[in-house]
Amino acid sequence: MRRISINSPNKKLRGLRRHFRELKRWANLIKNRREIKHGEKYFNIKVPLPLSIVEGPKTRPKIQADVIKELLNAARNLACQAPPANCSFYRIAVLLNFPSMFDSEVTQFFDEEYFNGFVYENGLPDTQRPSQQFSIKIPAEFDIECGCRVSVQDEEYSYVGNCWTITSSTPHSPPTDNNANAQHTWSVWRQGDDGNRFLIEAGLSEDVAKQKVAEFESHGHKQLYWATQSR
Asked: Could you read off the pLDDT of 110-138 as tens digits, one per residue?
């Protein structure tokens, strides 16, 4: 859930584990739209977290890096799905804003001219690239990471910051049915203290299965968790 805190910007961050579990679940389960409205140029999904976690005096680079990773994960999952049936152009992008990271989003573009307006001629140093600044590996589906300095000044609003676009230069290629079936052959298992093994969930992609293992392990449980692929 997106929330703006106006009373206690310096209040200690609480519920980080719960918020990030929900963020991971959102990124893993995100689904593409079947159709778009006539004339619709884009559809955006903002960071589903409270503002105090994403930006502000109490956030940390590690927290912001984890948020960016899940935005990229959500974008990758959308890119691996079939696009809306009635669109002639389709791109997925992660749009990042600094320092106003709360305004960052995953965007689906359905209009090429509108999309091109977000593919900047890179005017920022490489050291400011999100992939370098936050030590993040960008999924292979995206080969563009470009940014520019933005300054907006008028009577009611003033903003200066860096805007980055992470996207693809070529159309996304969702997997064929055979490849899709092959991708969802992973399962997550648990071994109890007594040595007995239990299946937790099956029919997962490799990324989702490994993310679930990492999530279980982050809770500090003594049980052993692992992901395996059915042959």
From this structure: 999 999 999 988 788 889 999 999 999 99
Q: Which two tokens stand for residue 227?
A: 């992901």
Residue 40: helix, strand or coil by DSSP? coil
Distance CA 222, CA 56 (A): 35
Nearest CA to 87 among 32, 26, 142, 46? 32
Please calculate the CA angle 168-172-176 and round it to the nearest 5 degrees: 155
CB atoms under 10 Å from CB of 97, counted, come to: 18
Amino acid letter, 111? D
Q: Using CB atoms within 10 A of its CB, is residue 55 exposed (0-12), middle (13-18) or buried (19+)?
A: buried
pLDDT band at residue 7 using 50, 70 and 90 as cut-offs = very low
Spacing of C-alpha 33 from chain mean position = 17
Q: Nearest 10 degrees: CA dihedral of 117, 121, 125, 129?
A: 40
d(C-alpha 53, C-alpha 27), whole Å:
17
- Residue 106 backbone dihedrals phi, psi, to 5 degrees: -100, 130
Structure tokens belonging to residue 43 = 């559809």
- The predicted model scores a pTM of 0.73
Q: Do the bridges between strand 158-167 and strand 186-191 make them parallel or antiparallel, or are there none, so unpaired?
A: unpaired
Q: Which residues contact 189 (CB under 8 A, 6 or more apart)?
A: 197, 198, 199, 200, 225, 226, 227, 228
Alpha-carbon distance of 80 to 184, in angstroms, equals 12
Domain ranges of the chain: 16-167, 177-229
